[in-house]
Amino acid sequence: MFKQLQLKKHALTAISYMLPVVVTAGLLIAIGNLTGGGVIEDYKAAYSVPDALVSLGVLGMGLLAPVIAGAIAYSIADRPGIGPGLFMGLIANAIGAGFLGGMLGGYLVGFFVLFLVKNSEGSKMGTRFDADDDRTALIYIDHWLIDVLCHRIADCLGNRSVDRILRRATRFG
Q: Which end of the chain is more exposed for a tag (fewer CB within 10 A), N or C?
């Protein structure tokens, strides 16, 4: 059964899309560190070019979860999976799930959007998956992940700080 899902193929596709982000961010961090830069703490204060390079590289590394989630969802569901996948990766970063949470979220979103694509009214009439279906997928997945899954996991683990962050960031709580 797992062979039919082609999980490895989707992961390898996503990694190939993620590599330019990793390489670019890593080079920015390395060049910035070699020239004496550090992460900028206060952007209102004066900072140097090496500081900006390191900070930009660190921000680029923060894009890994959204990029991997979006690329996995794209590999599974084609273009309709990109937006929901990127948002799933952002949510994974926000709850502290990181890279692995982004991968898992990408698979969840990708297969859900694929289900919507195959079962939408448009596919039954021979037309393409439209923007309304894409928004529907995004709303369902985001609601399910944030309101149902994240809050329940935070409650089970007793992690009130994650729960507080999610309640402040969303209007579901």
A: N
Question: If you search the block for the tokens 């960031």, which residue do you land on?
Answer: 169
CA–CA distance, 26 with 43 (Å, rounded to integer): 21
Rg (CA), the chain: 19
Q: Where are the alpha helices (DSSP H) in 40-150?
A: 49-61, 64-77, 82-94, 98-119, 121-124, 131-143
Would the pLDDT of 160 be above 60?
no
> What's the pLDDT score for residue 57?
94
56 band by pLDDT with thresholds 50, 70 and 90: very high
The total number of residues written for the chain in this structure: 173
Rounded distance between C-alpha atoms, residue 153 and residue 123, angstroms: 35
